[in-house]
Amino acid sequence: MYRRYLLFLIWAIAIVFILVFGNNRVFPAGFLFSFFRFDQSQFDTSALSLFTLLGIYPAAFFMLFLDEKRFLKPSPMLASCGAFVLGSFILMPYLALAIPRQTFLPFRRRKFVPYLVAVLAVLSAIVIWLALARSDWSIFQIYFMTNQFVRTMTVDLVMFYILQLFMLHRIRIRQDQRLGWRDLIPLFGLFSYLFRCHLPASTNS
Description:
Blueprint: H1 2-20, H2 31-36, H3 45-68, E1 72-73, H4 77-86, H5 88-97, E2 99-100, H6 112-134, H7 137-146, H8 148-174, H9 188-197
Antiparallel strand pairs: 1-2
């Protein structure tokens, strides 16, 4: 139960931090189109990469919830779809309120998941490489201090990672296991779990 209160506390602190910390110098009109195009001539690669990763993380959680919905009431699928727009800011309160339940429904392996995970993992690696190779982190610091959109994205990514640890910890407890080192890797820990549990030879409960 205390984990639910912790999620609510993190969620509330994140919102207050975004609203109170720093200034809010608005980006030029139409900036979202530049982000969708990954236009490095308009914005620094750091912010563009962050935006892209925030499209990949919800996809990973969507695949996770395809099976985890067996153990959650109400179904997480609506919140999971909403995460593509509202990010972790809708997933975190959902998971804080969701009621764990016992189920006799068997694990259903989905053949498409390992393939999709592999594609998303490669895309994530490319995006992270671009961020490390081409970003000017002093510009990102300015973005973070002066722009609420970038500040929100940064906090959103951190919250997604917290939710990754929360969900994988819950799964490992159910399996009478502890979090492994792979589980701790941001995003790729989630990819690793999804890939392995949906392989043909895998079994799950």
